[in-house]
Amino acid sequence: MTALLEVRNLVTEFPGEAGNGLRAVDDVSFRLGRGEVLGLVGESGSGKSVTGFSIMGLVDWPGRVTGGQILFDGEDIANADAETRRSLRGRRIAMVFQDPMMTLNPVLRIGTQMTEALHAHERMSSAAARERARDALGLVGIPSPEERLDAYPHQFSGGMRQRVAIAIALLHRPDLIIADEPTTALDVTIQAQIISEFQKLTEDQGTAVIWITHDLAIVSGLADRIAVMYGGRIVETGNIEDVLVAPKHPYTHGLIRSVPSQNSRGHRLAQIPGVTPSLARMPEGCAFRTRCERATDACTARPGRFGDVLAYHRCFHPHEEALV
Amino acid sequence: MTMAETVAGASTPLLELRQVSCRFGARPDLAARIAIALGAAKPFPIIHALDKVDLTIRKGEVLGLVGESGCGKSTLGRIAAGILPPSAGQVFWKGEDRATLRGSRQRDADLEAQMIFQNPMAALNPRMTIEKLVAEAPSIHGLIKGSTSSYVDDYLTKAGFDPAMKKRLPHQFSGGQRARVNIARALAVQPDFLVCDESVAALDVSIQAQILNLFMDLREQLDLTYLFVSHDLGVVEHISDRVAIMYLGRVIEEAPVAEIFSRPNHPYTQQLLAEVPRIRPGKRRFAAMKGELPSPLNPPKGCHFHPRCPHAHERCRVEVPQKREIAPGHVSACHLNDKQAV
């Protein structure tokens, strides 16, 4: 069985000041089966969003994909022409952004925008399109969808707007949805509502999901597998239980332990020293070595992948034991 | 200080809010008032941001203030910090009514309470160097004895910021470093009380851990009291001694942190805490509370939470529940507690 999506050694570069390419995505490989949920976790600037944009073919000039393959349903789309990408986008691969106003046009009614998305890929009558749009709004839990089709985006609350964005992403029953921090801007209660709707719909439709986030807690309850990014590379990936219970890479280890929780009450949090270096100042070899307590001279060499494409880490001195 | 004063100092809370309300809205001019009186115009809409809030903060404690956006937690934070006057009610600072303070005592009270805002870039003037930003307030208020430069270095070091970089401008730093500058700036006027309004919300997890540790170290070093306003339950659970839960302008429950997380009483608190994101591997169903926060322009009658509450009955729709102590230090405002008592 071929995987739905297989990314092999993907490299996305932006031109740097000195004329050298800055690698926002550096040798990223992962595989995603149908209906599977992958949590792509990392801090700001780790390259998780650019990875999503690269798969969508939405990397803004002057950045571009300079190496590797993106096999979608067995076909390499990394260097596909604009027309092919366009026919995939919205129909078979959809994206939900952090800010729903990035998806929605503020001067068009919701109904117009939804039927527009339908007409872009299918021939159908306006009445049929409107009916599909209304059903989609109902599915994501928007009350009185018929009337809401005639509303403008500013008439919705933030949570409702995100529901509309999700409804648009699900219109064509895509095989893959890339969700880029869709709940980060929302309150906890609204976040739980959106995740619960999203979870229900993608499971019903058998949609595979790449959930991009900085929040390990969300991913822990939502994803089948996890990939942790740092400095443009996936430093660790595997089954969610394996990685969260026994993280091998010191960065994953530190990240999990720096999340405040009931166990940390009244104690100091375990902190990772320093800050993420900018792309232009990324150290040679292992990108994390300047902040890592386990780093040795060996780390000046670039760590390869230890393990297979489904579960690997990039560290010369991995943690062996489980987290307590 | 005599013995009697020490004892009195221990029993007087640092800050006490009594029946504080805050309303926002345009004030109608004469013509508009006449038009409204004649029924020719509608009264101007008024936002009820806070509705008769009582809150006490004792010296040395960390009070976490939790609620959804729009519930009035930032407004409460601003009133506590003294940068916004309440529309009604009284604010007592170290036992004195803040509204009656004048002259140097008012100035002292204003300096003793400082605020750290959510967006560190918006709080820093982009055209002033870090040194000027930190030195500005203490030099205006004559707090610097000796050299300004070493005073600034001292406070930057306390906040974990390398003083060698103090000649640079805010845009040259990362979010975490800007947060540290804001902390140094607040500390530089030697406050007793800090209001942190979502101060770590915009930071990455690893940086957030560093700043939270800094807050805890500073509390020990400088004997600070915090009001920690946040929507992040994990952060509040980590840092607070006591937690107050807000819903649409009212504080509905207040308890020590271990108590509230193990035995939440108010139905809203119960549902809110069920959603604390925790790292627990394994797929689970995300359960969701129904509905959204109602508009503060037109809050529901009776208990504000009744349209979303699974236990709501007739009384909740008409009568505002009063706060009752249900366990030592644990206060909750819900009609269900009366039922159980009977």
List the helices and strands and how they pair.
The complex is a heterodimer of chains A (324) and B (342).
Chain A: E1 5-15, E2 21-32, E3 37-41, H1 48-56, E4 64-72, E5 75-76, H2 82-88, E6 93-96, H3 100-103, H4 110-121, H5 126-139, H6 145-148, H7 158-170, E7 176-180, H8 188-205, E8 208-213, H9 216-222, E9 225-230, E10 233-239, H10 240-245, H11 250-257, E11 306-308, E12 311-313
Parallel strand pairs in A: 3-8, 3-9, 6-7, 7-8
Antiparallel strand pairs in A: 1-2, 1-4, 4-5, 9-10, 10-12, 11-12
Chain B: H1 3-11, E1 15-24, H2 30-37, E2 47-57, E3 62-66, H3 73-81, E4 88-93, E5 96-97, H4 103-112, E6 113-116, H5 130-140, H6 148-158, H7 175-187, E7 193-197, H8 205-222, E8 225-230, H9 233-239, E9 242-247, E10 250-256, H10 257-262, H11 267-274, H12 314-318, E11 324-327, E12 330-332, H13 336-341
Parallel strand pairs in B: 3-8, 3-9, 6-7, 7-8
Antiparallel strand pairs in B: 1-2, 1-4, 4-5, 9-10, 10-12, 11-12
Helix pairs in contact in B: 5-6, 5-7, 6-7
